[in-house]
Amino acid sequence: MKLEEALEIVAQTHSGMVRAHNEDSIAVDAACGLAVLADGMGGYNAGEVASGLAVDVMMAEITQSLKSVSPVVRDERTGEENAVALLAGSIHSANTSIFQAAQTHEQYAGMGTTIVSALFYDNRVAVGHVGDSRMYRLRGESLSLMTRDHSLLQEQIDCGMISVENARHSQNKNLVTRAVGIDADVLPEIHVHDVQVGDVYLLCSDGLNDMVEEDDIQSILYAMQGNLLLAAEQLIQTANDNGGRDNVSVILVRVKQVFAQPRSWLSGLLGWFKE
Fold it and tell me: Rounded CA gap, 151 and 157, in Å?
């Protein structure tokens, strides 16, 4: 079985109702089970440069790594270790590319981006993120947040300075404590989760969850999970109907079939490319 037959993936982005430029970048590769979303920040056009660099570097590095490794090469690492290493390495490469570009081009000084990425393998998903772009999972009727924002607001919630309810109306929503490309090094957060047939995964920029309540996100995903394109369009439309104050991007992934392989993780993936 090919991995793209086990996963249905849809990606959509919109500049919103206020911003003149779209500084979000998104990319997917169904054959690799890979999805990457970045929300850029910086001066004029620098945000879209940062997010574009991040997505391009991550997609190129991971897909090339998967497609170039020989299945006869002995690899003692587990699938989880490989997946985590691929995400971590590519995020660090993206960080280096953005940081160096900002150092050598005055117009890009201080640019950076958030990242949320997902790599599906062996009935699991490895999730790597930096900043406040998020991943949610709809399982049955339950919507769960799978990432923790790297933001000042989240730190205030964690230490009890502000309640979750009051945080919804805070003016500090967009103050991130980690971003890709701001410093010479970055610390991504990476976790691995088991997946089930029927799961729907949502990767999004904060332009969605800042404008749409999680209960409404859940309702839309649950009602429209059979048509991911319509669901993505409805999520974006709802964000825009509620004001659309930021760019809004969504990637939806639905697990249609199991995709575990009896062989090693790397050779299994390579087998999908060759079939």
Answer: 10
pLDDT band at 151 (very low <50, low <70, confident <90, very high): confident
Which strands make up the sheet holding 189-194, listed edge to edge? 24-29, 34-41, 112-121, 124-130, 189-194
Domain that residue 252 falls in: 3-147+178-274
- Which of 64-73, 110-119, 164-173, 253-262 is most confident? 110-119
Widest distance between CA atoms in the chain: 55
Q: Are 37 and 204 in contact (CB under 8 A)?
A: yes
Three-class DSSP category at 121:
strand
Is residue 157 assigned to a domain?
Answer: no
Examine the pLDDT at 190 and tell me if it is beyond 50: yes
How far apart CA 251 and CA 9 sit, in angstroms, is 7
Residue 134: which CATH number? 3.60.40.10
pLDDT confidence band for 91 (50 / 70 / 90): very high
Q: Are 63 and 32 in contact (CB under 8 A)?
A: yes
Q: Per the domain annotation, does 33 fall within a domain? A: yes
Average pLDDT over residues 140-157: 90
Note whether 82 and 65 are within 8 A (CB).
no
